[in-house]
Description:
Radius of gyration: 16 Å
Mean pLDDT: 89
Structural class: mainly alpha
Shape: flat
Number of strands: 0
Largest sheet: none
Helix content: 55-70%
Strand content: under 5%
Distance between the termini: 26 Å
Number of helices: 4
Amino acid sequence: xxxxxxxxxxAKSLLLLPxxxxxxxxxxxxxxxxxxxxxxxxxEIPSAELEGRxxx
Length: 56
Protein backbone atom coordinates (compact mmCIF):
# COMPACT_ATOMS: atom_id res chain seq x y z
CA UNK A 1 0.00 0.00 0.00
CA UNK A 2 2.84 2.42 0.71
CA UNK A 3 3.78 2.64 -2.96
CA UNK A 4 0.27 3.86 -3.81
CA UNK A 5 0.78 7.10 -1.91
CA UNK A 6 -1.23 9.30 0.39
CA UNK A 7 -4.20 9.69 -1.95
CA UNK A 8 -4.93 5.97 -1.85
CA UNK A 9 -4.70 5.94 1.95
CA UNK A 10 -6.97 8.98 2.18
CA ALA A 11 -9.54 7.39 -0.14
CA LYS A 12 -9.41 4.09 1.73
CA SER A 13 -9.95 5.87 5.04
CA LEU A 14 -13.37 6.95 3.75
CA LEU A 15 -14.45 3.32 4.18
CA LEU A 16 -14.50 4.02 7.92
CA LEU A 17 -17.56 6.23 7.39
CA PRO A 18 -20.98 4.56 7.63
CA UNK A 19 -22.37 3.57 4.22
CA UNK A 20 -25.34 6.00 4.33
CA UNK A 21 -22.94 8.89 4.91
CA UNK A 22 -20.64 7.71 2.09
CA UNK A 23 -23.64 7.45 -0.22
CA UNK A 24 -24.79 10.95 0.74
CA UNK A 25 -21.31 12.38 0.07
CA UNK A 26 -21.14 10.57 -3.27
CA UNK A 27 -24.52 11.99 -4.28
CA UNK A 28 -23.44 15.56 -3.39
CA UNK A 29 -20.25 15.23 -5.43
CA UNK A 30 -22.15 13.69 -8.36
CA UNK A 31 -24.70 16.52 -8.35
CA UNK A 32 -21.94 19.13 -8.44
CA UNK A 33 -19.29 17.36 -10.52
CA UNK A 34 -19.14 19.98 -13.28
CA UNK A 35 -18.83 22.84 -10.80
CA UNK A 36 -16.12 20.96 -8.90
CA UNK A 37 -14.11 19.49 -11.77
CA UNK A 38 -15.17 21.48 -14.84
CA UNK A 39 -16.57 20.31 -18.15
CA UNK A 40 -14.54 19.33 -21.20
CA UNK A 41 -15.73 20.03 -24.74
CA UNK A 42 -14.37 16.65 -25.87
CA UNK A 43 -12.71 13.52 -24.55
CA GLU A 44 -8.96 13.55 -24.11
CA ILE A 45 -7.00 11.39 -26.55
CA PRO A 46 -4.40 9.45 -24.55
CA SER A 47 -0.71 9.80 -25.35
CA ALA A 48 1.17 6.77 -26.68
CA GLU A 49 2.70 6.25 -23.23
CA LEU A 50 -0.66 6.30 -21.49
CA GLU A 51 -2.36 4.21 -24.16
CA GLY A 52 0.07 1.37 -23.45
CA ARG A 53 -1.11 1.34 -19.83
CA UNK A 54 -4.83 1.11 -20.67
CA UNK A 55 -6.78 -2.12 -20.71
CA UNK A 56 -8.72 -2.97 -23.83
